[in-house]
Amino acid sequence: MRRTIFDLDVLRTFVTGMELGNFARAADRLGRSTSAVSAQLKKLEEQAGTPIFRKSGRGLALTDAGETMLGYARRLLELNDEAAAAVHSVELEGWVRLGLQEDFGETLLPDVLGRFARAHPKVRIEARVVRNVELIERVTSGKLDLALAWSDGTLTPHCDRIGEVPMRWIGSAAVSSGWDRASGEPLPLAALEAPCLMRSAATKALDAAGISWRLAFVSPSLGGLWAATAAGLGITLRTPVGLPAKVRPLMAEDLALPELPGLGLVLHRAEAESAPAVARLAGLVRQSVSDVLGEVARPAAVSAVRMARQGRG
Fold first, then answer.
1. Cis preceding linkage at 195, omega within 30
2. What tens digit of pLDDT does each residue of 10-40 get?
3. Which long-range contacts (CB under 8 A, 24 or more apart) does 49-58 make?
4. What sections of 89-178 are H helices per DSSP?
């Protein structure tokens, strides 16, 4: 049996195109012509020995084999980049202070810290998981080197928007909310203590839709918010990132709730020119965010396809 050895350069083009949602953009990002990118994708299908893409309207979508290939391609590239960083930056030393939202504490932080520590064992990392306001204050005052925060329109001198996440109404996975808009009763809202970006987004959306609401539960922590929501004390507003199994996104149309916009993610840096250790950690954060957002987008895409099929039926 012939051994298949995938070309990492081809895999990087494949992953970049899927993350950007467009292979023409991938060509620009990677400094290649569109014809060169097309040739690489053809080579990938030849190496895989099975179709990776299928036609979907005017564009392309992944086959089941393509979905599998994408997951393995990300892992292969991560390991390659980690090995390269470990070999070329073995003497990297210093201290990096990272801050991020509670939502990413379990979904992103362990992966980032583990990969960074393996590649750079001499670098000390201090991580702080806090709310948006504190993240911005700490990075602007120099108490954090990096901060991954939700976008509330605040721009620091050195920041980059690195993604967007859909906001969703969240309810219990086991208990019905018991709320019906037709009843005229105010919607029971569970929220974090103010100031909270998503609490403000929830009340603004409800007010604009003419839906009355009441604060049924207020928590200083995300863990408390999840407990209250899982118990059916109220409906909350968050993103699909880091949702525990005891809660679930609600279909806005089912409860006659307003649709919600996306929420940007911004990586703030304390300095324009980061130290090598900080720059390396920032790169890992970007990659992990891309992976998390890819996982979030996949169920939404599947749900959209199912709804379309049901509509046709």
1. yes
2. 998 998 888 777 788 888 878 888 899 999 9
3. 49/4, 52/14
4. 109-119, 132-140
- Using an 8 Å Cβ cutoff, are 61 and 54 in contact? yes
- Beta-carbon-side half-sphere exposure of residue 101 (alpha carbons within 13 Å): 24
What token pair was written down for 275? 């130290």
Q: What is the CA 170 to chain-centroid distance, rounded? A: 17
- Pairwise CA distance, residues 2 & 87, whole Å: 31
Q: How many CA atoms lie within 13 A of 190 on its CB side?
A: 24
Other beta carbons within 10 angstroms of residue 2's beta carbon come to 5
CB 77 within 8 A of CB 12: yes
How many residues in the chain?
313
pLDDT (tens digit per residue) in 174-198: 988 778 888 889 999 999 998 899 9
Using alpha carbons, list the distances in angstroms from residue 239 to 18, 25, 262.
Answer: 22, 27, 9
**pTM for the full model?**
0.67
